[in-house]
Design brief:
- GO terms for molecular function: transmembrane transporter activity.
- Pfam families: FtsX, MacB_PCD.
- This is Putative ABC transport system permease protein.
- The protein contains 24 helices and 22 strands.
- Helix 8 runs antiparallel to helix 13, helix 20 packs parallel to helix 23 and helix 22 packs antiparallel against helix 23.
């Protein structure tokens, strides 16, 4: 019996070779898209699975009225809470301190390090290579090295490094190596090349609202997480009130501090803040949903083509029933045929995934491999379910034919088959229209962001970040001043400036300010320490007032320029804000005076709102040690030569022994668009895939249906109908279905895009033209495909179809 089923299946595949190829191709592409996004999702979910007891480890996040939801906590919030709340078994902190150069003798390593405490190794038990984790970071003179870093510093004898001293160029201090560890091989955000004790913890012990540390709790099994979150939140609210009384600002009762605990195994995707190297869960889930739609579209094609072929197989069904075959056997036969097509598509899809994976990894900046056996198990089960779902409808439809009707030739007049095909075709075009609408709106939003006025002119400007920095003895400020003077002497350099914030990389160091005349008016602001020429350098527009005058002591000591958002937060417009005074929380409650208001500058991209910022002389307080880069404007002549001269100066005089790199400011800012440009690219590609699958399905379906009407065409031609009339008669039903499908898709497209646009602080108004263009585009494509087949039908040989009439 099975052999007979297979022979019948291959005969039908060969007879309907075009629809078979379209089915396999459509399903392969749909499965390929689904698999690529599915493996990305599984890869993101696999982070921190290597940690023993991970079910009891939680990442601590905070929300405050001033700073929103944050991934950082305060020192006492983490360590004092452990003593107060019995549910907390242990705690630790971690800070990524970026790259630093370590040296031993003539060897050096420029690697990424972290500041932490001893308890880190109890939470994250890295594999020990040498030494001991016990008291490994018990004081500020100890350091833990990864095996790779140790090998760079000590060579092949790195296992003997325990007890030896390495020097950190960031602070010119020596550290004793206490342990060598191996970084976990599984997916993890914890990949420090070295670790030492956080040197600033002692200063933070009483500062409950100084959010500076990534904190983690290990909780006792069975802890009520929601109850503990409430306790922690109440404690932070108490401390917020104490801090408000101390600094003289009003507490926001409507937006009190809140504490959230996120399981460490879900931190990568589900952190409520920006987390630690957080993934973009929303985009992944959207893409996964869209890939399911594409796969559904492929399944719809399969169902539609199978039901359209019913007239070719109706007599076969009738004969088989007459000779004793049951409906159940027929259903299993047709399900087998569908499974064979799906299995072939599954094999082709995996070949396509293997082929596309290197480019996909480059696009995602990941290193995903097809080496997880669970992937094949999951997708294999999915294939079986998909085959059943997509195969059951045509199987039941075909097996329901009545032998007496099919043998008389009455099967073609079944209205149920027509309604089923129309419904499925409508669903197919609804999905196509939805993708077109969304793709056009995403393209429009990304274009709007890229063309938005950023508030500055960064053309022909590069930024070079310092590799060696030190927060002691004004190291950063003195280094900046020296390099600025030296760089100005290089031919092709027209100007040099600096600031504590980096365009395209966001702002740092926030504080609370309040008006001197009205203590109830407070706002959170970012600190904008700048060099004297910064605002002129970037051609920032003044809305009122004037720039800081470095020759006036009053301007440089307590003068400030603010952005329009800062003025608005305090209830002023650019003109009325002039000469207003405010107290700061960062400079010993010193009073600052507003001398000018400038147009908002976008530091973090245009998807986020502009933050209030105060621009002031960088060398008047502790902010001077945050000067970690220089920004250099180049002449339009011989840019490449100027870049080479800057590089030569940098590697020989500025920072010898360190790797040199730079970035054009415009390009650096353009990175803030990358996420949305990738969304645009992916959606455009998915849109093309959807249209190709839908149109191939429409082409095959129209071919089958028009072939069934060739006898009608021959009769109409014999009676004198012209070609235009025949083509229109064969096409109009498809156009009507297309029109209905677009109108059905409009509310779904509107809802999806309105939700997507909510993520943007600056967004377009919902345009009408994508919905109209989607209608016309689908109508034109549908008409072009169906009318082509209809026109070919008018060229048939009349004798062939009328000789038996």
């Amino acid at each position: 019996m099975l052999k007979n089923w297979l022979k019948i299946a291959f005969i039908n595949y060969r007879k309907n070779w075009l629809s078979t190829i379209i089915n396999i191709l459509g399903l392969s592409v749909g499965l390929c898209v689904f698999l690529l996004i599915f493996i990305h999702w599984q890869d993101e979910k696999s982070y921190e699975k290597w940690i023993p007891g991970k079910e009891n480890i939680y990442f601590v996040e905070n929300k405050s009225a001033s700073f929103g939801t944050m991934s950082v906590s305060s020192y006492p919030e983490i360590f004092v809470s452990k003593e107060i709340f019995s549910e907390i078994e242990d705690c630790t902190i971690l800070n990524d301190w970026g790259k630093q150069r370590l040296s031993f003798g003539n060897n050096s390593a420029y690697v990424s390090g972290s500041a932490t405490v001893d308890s880190f190794f109890r939470f994250f038990p890295f594999e020990k290579v040498a030494g001991s984790f016990r008291n490994a970071l018990s004081d500020n003179g100890k350091i833990a090295l990864s095996d790779k870093t140790a090998h760079l510093l000590f060579g092949d004898n790195y296992l003997d490094a325990i007890g030896k001293s390495v020097k950190s160029d960031s602070n010119d201090k020596e550290y004793v190596v206490t342990v060598i560890y191996k970084i976990p091989e599984g997916n993890t955000v914890f990949k420090p090349d070295f670790m030492y004790k956080n040197p600033y913890m002692e200063q933070s012990k009483e500062q409950w609202t100084n959010y500076s540390y990534n904190g983690f709790f290990k909780l006792k099994p069975g802890t009520d997480i929601k109850s503990l979150e409430d306790k922690l939140s109440r404690k932070m609210q108490e401390q917020d009130e104490i801090s408000a009384k101390k600094w003289g600002y009003a507490v926001d009762k409507k937006n009190p501090p809140m504490v959230y605990l996120t399981p460490i195994s879900k931190m990568k995707l589900d952190a409520k803040s920006e987390g630690i190297r957080k993934g973009d869960k929303k985009s992944i889930m959207i893409l996964l949903g869209l890939s399911v739609l594409i796969l559904s579209l492929s399944g719809i094609n399969l169902i539609n083509l199978k039901t359209a072929q019913a007239s070719q197989r109706a007599k076969e069904v009738g004969v088989r029933k007459v000779v004793g075959s049951s409906k159940v056997k027929l259903v299993f036969q047709f399900l087998l045929e569908t499974f064979m097509i799906c299995f072939m598509a599954y094999i082709v899809a995996f070949a396509m995934v293997e082929l596309l994976l290197p480019a996909y990894n480059k696009f995602l900046e990941k290193d995903i491999k097809l080496n997880d056996p669970r992937l094949f198990i999951y997708t294999g089960l999915f294939l079986i379910v998909f085959s059943l779902v997509s195969g059951l409808i045509p199987a039941l439809y075909l097996s329901n034919f009545k032998p007496i009707n099919t043998l008389k030739g009455n099967f073609a007049r079944s209205k149920s088959g027509v309604w089923l095909r129309n419904f499925i075709l409508t669903l197919q075009l609804v999905i196509s229209s939805f993708f077109i609408i969304c793709s056009l709106i995403i393209h429009t939003q990304v274009k709007y962001m890229m063309n938005k006025d950023l508030g500055f002119k960064g053309d022909q400007t590069i930024q070079v970040n310092f590799k060696k920095t030190n927060w002691e003895n004004n190291f950063n400020m003195n280094k900046y001043r020296r390099l600025k003077n030296e760089l100005k002497k290089i031919s092709g350099v027209t100007d040099v400036t600096g600031s504590v914030n980096s365009l395209g990389n966001g702002t740092a160091n926030g504080s609370i300010v309040k008006l001197s005349t009205d203590t109830t008016k407070t706002t959170q602001t970012m600190l904008g320490g700048i060099d004297e020429n910064f605002l002129r350098f970037y051609k920032v527009k003044f809305l009122s007032g004037q720039d800081l005058n470095w020759k006036k002591a009053s301007d440089t000591i307590n003068g400030a320029v603010v952005n329009e958002t800062f003025a608005g937060k305090l209830g002023y417009n650019p003109k009325t804000a002039l000469n207003k005074e405010f107290f700061t929380g960062w400079d010993g409650k010193k009073k600052y005076k507003i001398l000018g208001v400038v147009k908002d500058i976008h530091y973090s991209g245009v998807s986020k709102p502009v933050e209030p910022i105060v621009y002031f002389n960088y060398d008047r307080n502790w902010i001077k040690n945050n000067m970690k880069n220089v920004q250099i404007k180049l002449s339009g002549n011989d840019i490449n030569g100027t870049l080479e001269r800057i590089k030569e100066f940098w590697i020989t005089k500025a920072e010898p022994g360190y790797p040199y790199d730079f970035e054009f400011v415009d390009k650096q800012f353009a990175k803030t668009f990358e996420k949305f440009q990738k969304q645009q690219t992916l959606f455009t590609m998915l849109n093309i895939v959807v249209l190709v699958i839908a149109l191939l399905g429409l082409f095959a379906l129209s071919s089958l249906l028009i072939e069934q009407k060739l006898k009608d065409v021959a009769i109409k031609k014999t009676l004198g109908a012209d070609e235009k009339t025949i083509v229109w008669d064969l096409t109009k039903r498809f156009l009507l279905i297309c029109l209905i499908a677009v109108f059905i898709s409009i509310p779904f497209g509107y809802y999806a895009m309105n939700e997507w646009l909510k993520d943007f602080a600056y967004r377009i108004d919902m345009p009408v033209w994508p919905y109209v263009l989607s209608l016309f585009l689908l109508l034109i494509l549908t008409f072009a495909i169906v009318s082509f087949k209809a026109y070919r039908a008018t060229k048939i040989n009349l004798v062939k179809y009328l000789k038996y009439e």
